[in-house]
Every structure is written in C-alpha cells, then in structure tokens.
Write a structure and sequence with these properties.
This is Cation/acetate symporter ActP. α4 packs parallel to α12, α8 crosses α14 and α10 crosses α19. It is built from 21 helices and no strands. The protein is an all-alpha fold and about 500 residues long. It has a single domain, classed as Sodium/glucose cotransporter (Up-down Bundle). The termini are far apart.
Length: about 500
Amino acid sequence: MQTVLGQPTLTGIFFFLLFVSITLYITYWAAKRTRTTTEFYAAGRSITGLQNGLALAGDYMSAASFLGIAGLVSLKGYDGLIYAVGWLVGWPIVMFLIAEPLRNLGKYTFADVVAYRLKQRPIRTAAATGALITVLFYLIAQMVGAGSLIKLMFGLPYEVAIIIVGCLMIAYVLFGGMLATTWVQIIKAFLLLGGATLLVLLTLYKFGFNYVELFSTVTAKYGDKFVQPGGLIKNPIDAISLGIALMFGTAGLPHILMRFYTVPDAKEARKSVFYATGFIGYFYILTFTIGFGAAALVGQQIISKIDKGGNMAAPLLAEALGGEIFLGFLAAVAFATILAVVAGLTLAGASAVSHDIYVGVVKRGKADEKQEVRAAKIATLCLGVLAIILGIVFKGQNVAFMVGLAFAVAASANFPALLMSIFWRKFTTTGAVWSIYTGLILSVVLIILSPTVWVDILKNPQPIFPLKNPGIVSFFASFAIGILVSLLTQEKEAEAKFESEKIRSYIGVGAE
C-alpha cells in the first residue's frame, strides 16, 4: 500500500485551515461575552446538560483515545481494549459519587470542594500542586502527540508543529475562556464521532457488515491469540493496578472536574455525565472496530513501519478506504482532538494557579474579579509557553508513561481527598494534605522506578519497582494515610461544618 502520510496534501491543509478558522471565529465571538471570573472559568454557568455532555466527551476523547487505542488494538489485538474499558468505567464513579456534590459545593476548581470545611491555605496549596502536576504530564503527552501527528500529516518540522498548537491553544483560552473552550470541544466531539462512524461503516461494508467475517480475516492473518486476552498485560496485578489508575484517575482529572461548574445546577451536571458516558462508550466501540479493521485491511507491517506504536492505524485505514480526501479530513479531526484537549488542560492549570494559589493562598481570598481574571490570563500565557518548551524537550520520547502517570497522579493525589472531604465527617485538614502529597509523591517516584521508565527510558537492566503502573500502591496508600492522620488529628470545627456541607451537597442550597 502506497501512502501520502508525511507529505503535505491539499485536502489535509484545506480541512486543517477550515477547522482553525471556525474555532478562531468562535474565540472572537466568546471573547465579547467573557468579562467576569464566572464567565472566564465556567462560561457563566450557561451550558446545558447535553452541550456539557458533548464538551466532556470532547475534552476526554484525547489523541490517546482515538489514535492510541485503535493503534493498540491493531497491533496487540484484544488486549488493546484494556485502556478503553478502564477509561469508560470511570464515568459511573463520576456520575454517582462526584458530579452532584462537586457542582453544589464548588465554584471553579475541585480544591473549592476539598477546602469547603477545612483550612483554606494548606488545602489549596496541596490540591493546586496535585492538579498542576496532573495537567503538566497530560499536557506533555498531548503536545508530543500533536507534534508527531502534524509532522507526519503535513510534512511540517516537529518544532513548528508544536509552536502552532501552543499558539492556538493560548488564543482559545486567553481570549475566549471556558465559553470558547466548550464550543471547540463540542465541535471536535461532533467531528470525531462523525468521522469515526463513517470509518467504521466503510470498514464493515468491506466485510458485508458482518463482524464474524472481520474476525475470521484477522485470525486467519494473525492466529487465534490475536482475539484472546494476554497479548499486552500478562501480570494480573499489573492489570488491576492499571485499571485502578484509569478508573479512579478519570474522577480526579482537574480539566474534567472543572466542566461541572459550567452547568446551571446539579441536575444538569448529572445529565451531562449521562450523555458523556453514552458518547464515550459509543466512541470506544468504534475504536475497537477501527483497530481490527486496520489490522485486517492495512496490515501490521505497514502500520508499525509508519509508527512503531501503531498511532497512525486509523489515518492509514481512512486512506485505504476513502483515499486522500478522507485521510485529510481524519487528519484534521485528529488535530482538532488534540487542540480541544490541550485547551481544557490549559484552562484547568490556569485556574489552579490563579483561583487556588493566587487568590486563595497569596491574597487570602481577598482579590477582586479583575485581578483574578488577569492572574488567570498570565497563568494561561505561562502554561502555554511551558507546554511548547516541554513539547520540544520531550521530542521522540515514549509518552505512554506520561498519560499513565497523569491518571495515576489524578487517582492517587486528587480523588481520595475529594471523596473523603465530601463523605467523611472526621476528615481533617492535616489528613487531606498528607493524603494528597502521599499520593502525588508515591505515584511519581514509583513510576520512575518502574520498568516503563527505569528500564525502557533510563536503560537500567532491572526495575526497582516491578509494576508498570503504581496505581495499586499509591491509590490505597493515599486513602490509608488520609484516614490514619485524620484519626490522629481531630478537627472539631471541620466536623461541626459537616452537616451544613451535607445539606448543600444534597440539596444545593447556597450553590452558585
């Protein structure tokens, strides 16, 4: 099969420029409606449940989801689905445990909820640190992915690609705030779901819309093991550890949690998770078919020749089925995917710096709206420049561990403290701070000592920590330390406020 990947094509450039033009117009429209802090951080709480569900799906379906899972399935078969299942199972946890109390108790960041009845400054410092580290690891993975993708799709130098993504991301957040970011994510969700659906229909058409035919072709080419578990993760404890990170990490991602403040009330927050789960579940069924379709119609040899990790399986399948035009469209969709996610991440990082650290810690809660929005815009600019620099520094690195680490940090540092602050009366400020830092430090240190970094990247012969993902250790350690320290450091004031917190989290009295 001859491919035009790596060469600039007119259709690719046309779709790319069309998407950029539309999203920049949205940013211009949103900029005129973004003046207050609520408008900048939370789109004036004017987004409906359906719109927020689409935006959540757009924020969550990253390049790792679209390109990564399809590629993993095309090269590893059945086991490539472990990420899709882990990421999807996290959503019911968000829906039943987190969405409603989060919307009722907080204003702009998840630190608002953790600090609701605890001491503000230590909590906000710890929570913002956890949020920023999660955002940075996730951001690096997306930026490196963007650079590699645009380099391959349009023939641009890697560094130029990173700078283009960085500048567009800064423009969306700096001028349009959450309103522009939301609509960029909604458009991207439509494009991605539409493009992937068309790709699946064209794939199934080749097999007479019969999955048995598709799997027969795949097993004839690669053997029965390709459709059986055990191809990617052989150690069951590693599988559980990865599953914990993916499931609970979803409920601790700052850019996902922040989206619940954009809806008017808790009912719409719940609705938005319901819609998001449906869209994301449907999308993962599509990636599964795309992966097997690419293995059958393109072949593993060509897929791994273009990209060792198999990340170009979906674009190669699009080219095989729809030619240069469909490839150009799908390339622009993949670019839109990355842009929407980095915009959400940047906004979450900026809000942690401005709302939690600048207003909550430095100004002790005494800053006017103009000062806070200015701080958020300066933070956006700094984060954007940092993302561009890190994207260039990490060029060519294996970024899979970055995404795994982002989820492990979110599951270990952010989720336990958030859950215990909502549901456990005896949770104290010291317990929360210890819980956050334990999860944060353990997850980062253990992943450095794991086979993924210690052996694959640092080229040491043996890993110090045997598991590839630290979730099973850092997640439970964060809970255990939080509980133990809280029992040793009683806080009568925090316990007294628990009843009023419970009433507000259930009924929403006093929520913005």
